[in-house]
């Protein structure tokens, strides 16, 4: 081999310096992150082995993400309590669960729940606790959405969305919390949205309710941290469910359309698995979305002026599209 060829095989000194600099800078960050990840995986596996027999209450369990969560936790050997307004649909979900080959398997419990009826929630919790005497995991998943700008949205619609999406979950959490504190154990999971991290046009009522949920979860987490109670807040992007079909318009009527973004969203089954991992790892706050939503989140906090400009352009585009369609 010629001397020139040998020189080509030897790494350039400039590259050696670059590798050394990157290693020096990144290693103190990468190593702790890797160790935390390994520790979280170990803890998740340990807790997964303890999941069979845990009592899991899921609201909004009659369809969509709630139904997928019911399947995930039932397959994990949990005692699932399914709650929603549509008991007929809950019975369908229960029938589907019982058809699964699961060991151990506990017959799912179906209970009617209307989150808008705040005064009925304490009595609902009494019925819940009468089933197994406890709830180990509460998943606040029930909710509704709105498709309308601020000017055309009736205050009654804002109020309804806030009651169902925020106050309903708050009332349920407060009613169950004393039993968790008494046992010194429990996990409360709030299913929020990336729109609880940043707001977009024509989602003011929905986004406001999710912002409130995020703040409540953050405060509650701090308050119960010394009581062995965990609080998670999950903020998904668009999910391929019936959410937009069941959404309200500004007048309170049914929106009844499948949005393109919703149709192209992540599968509820995939999200349900990620939520299970979140609970197993005791993660306090996670965003589960595509890159676009995550970029918007960081823009809102790191470069708000650019974010506001983009949202203004989006609002104008939506307004023009609405005028054209009408």
Automatic annotation (TrEMBL):
One of its GO terms (cellular component) is membrane. The chain crosses the membrane at residues 17-39. SMART domains: PKS_KR (SM00822). One of its GO terms (molecular function) is oxidoreductase activity. Keywords: Membrane, Oxidoreductase, Transmembrane, Transmembrane helix. Coiled coil: none annotated. It comes from the Eukaryota. Putative oxidoreductase. This is Dehydrogenase/reductase SDR family protein 7-like. It comes from Drosophila rhopaloa. The gene is LOC108051456.
């Amino acid at each position: 081999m010629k001397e020139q060829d040998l020189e080509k095989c030897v790494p350039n000194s400039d590259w050696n310096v670059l590798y050394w600099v990157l290693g020096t800078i990144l290693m103190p960050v990468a190593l702790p992150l890797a160790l935390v990840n390994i520790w979280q995986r170990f803890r998740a596996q340990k807790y997964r082995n303890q999941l069979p027999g845990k009592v899991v209450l899921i609201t909004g369990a009659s369809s969509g993400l709630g139904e997928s969560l019911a399947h995930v936790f039932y397959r994990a050997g949990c005692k699932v309590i399914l709650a929603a307004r549509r008991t007929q649909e809950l019975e369908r979900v229960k029938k589907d669960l019982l058809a699964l080959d699961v060991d151990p398997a506990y017959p799912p419990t179906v209970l009617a729940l209307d989150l808008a009826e705040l005064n009925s929630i304490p009595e609902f919790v009494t019925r819940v606790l009468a089933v197994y005497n406890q709830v180990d995991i509460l998943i606040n998943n029930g909710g509704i959405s709105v498709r309308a700008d601020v000017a055309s949205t009736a205050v009654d619609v804002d109020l309804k969305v806030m009651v169902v999406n925020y106050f309903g979950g708050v009332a349920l959490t407060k009613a169950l919390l004393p039993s968790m504190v008494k046992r010194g154990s429990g996990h409360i999971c709030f299913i929020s949205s990336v729109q609880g991290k940043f707001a977009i046009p024509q989602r003011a009522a929905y986004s406001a309710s999710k912002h409130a949920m995020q703040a409540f979860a953050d405060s509650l987490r701090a308050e119960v941290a010394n009581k062995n109670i965990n609080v998670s807040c999950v903020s998904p992007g668009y999910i391929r469910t019936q959410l937009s079909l069941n959404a309200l318009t500004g007048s309170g009527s049914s929106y009844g359309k499948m949005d393109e973004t919703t149709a192209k969203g992540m599968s509820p089954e995939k999200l349900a698995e990620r939520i299970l991992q979140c609970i197993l790892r005791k993660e306090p706050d996670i965003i589960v979305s595509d890159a676009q939503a995550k970029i918007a989140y960081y823009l809102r906090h790191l470069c708000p002026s650019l974010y506001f400009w983009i949202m203004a352009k989006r609002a104008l585009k939506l307004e023009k599209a609405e005028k054209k369609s009408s």
